[in-house]
Amino acid sequence: MTASPQPSPLTQRLIDMVSSSAELMAALSAARSLGLQNWCIGAGAVRTLVWDALHGHASPTPLADVDLVYFAPDAPPQRDAELEARLRQLMPALEWEVTNQAHVHSWFMREFGREVAPLLSLEDGVATWPEYATCIGVTLAADDAIQVTAPHGLEDLFELRVRHNPARADVHTYRHRVVSKRFAQRWPLLAIESLQ
Q1: pLDDT tens, residue by residue, 84-125
Q2: Which residues have a Cβ under 8 Å from the Cβ of 117 and sit 6 or more positions away?
Q3: How far apart are CA 171 and CA 109, in angstroms?
Q4: CB 19 within 8 A of CB 145
Q5: Are 157 and 126 in contact (CB under 8 A)?
Q6: What's the angle, vertex CA 7, arms to CA 41 and CA 67, rounded to 5?
Q7: Which helix (H) or strand (E) holds 66?
Q8: How far, in Å, CA of 196 to CA of 180, rounded?
Q9: CA 38/CA 71 separation, integer angstroms
Q10: Number of Cβ within a 10 Å radius of residue 82
Q11: With left for phi above 0 and alpha for psi between -120 and 50, is residue 30 left, alpha or beta?
Q12: How far is it, in rounded angstroms, from Cα 98 to Cα 86?
């Protein structure tokens, strides 16, 4: 049997941060209990944890929501709402948002009237999120190992860089997110790419 490769130093650092967060570990455990095959918690929950730690914040920034994404092409559209309801029963203090990445192209058409290609995998979906530092997800395996999905790497996250990922989000969306999420106010050490 081949030993699994050692995680990179940044991956190990993220795993250590996640495992030391009681709230995120509880959320991962709740998500795992849904029995999904291909899933992760990502975006703001991970980004906030790391940036709070790197800024030395004494108490964690409250999470606006917890994004659970999964990939199941055959799941019916109403499955997301059913899973959210189950998670709210398990952890009612959190604002859960569940999205099947296999259906995101339909959402784009409904929301923006814009046709985009269907995503092909969970990682494909994570890779399209609006900032490179946000394109990260974590999963809790059956053996309690924390697994990291980071299609663009972890450098932007740990080097406190905010850069626009143009895969799906336009410049207007990126600029709006930077302002509405108060990145500069919450985490003043960030280097934020400004786009005209």
Answers
A1: 999 999 999 999 999 999 988 776 656 666 677 888 999 999
A2: 105
A3: 19
A4: no
A5: no
A6: 5
A7: strand 66-70
A8: 17
A9: 6
A10: 13
A11: alpha
A12: 11
Q: Which two tokens stand for residue 175?
A: 């600029």
Rounded distance between C-alpha atoms, residue 14 and residue 60, angstroms: 16
pLDDT of residue 3: 53
Q: Which amino acid is at 129?
A: W
- The backbone torsions φ and ψ at residue 114, rounded to the nearest 5 degrees and listed phi first, read -120, 130
> Residue 137 in contact with residue 69, Cβ under 8 Å?
yes
Q: Which residues neighbour 68 within 8 Å (Cβ) at sequence distance 6 or greater?
A: 31, 39, 40, 41, 83, 87, 96, 97, 98, 99
pLDDT cut 90: percent of the chain above it: 79
Pairing verdict, β 66-70 and 39-42: antiparallel
Amino acid of residue 1: M
How far is it, in rounded angstroms, from Cα 157 to Cα 7?
Answer: 16
Question: CA separation (Å) from 2 to 6, 143, 145?
Answer: 12, 17, 17
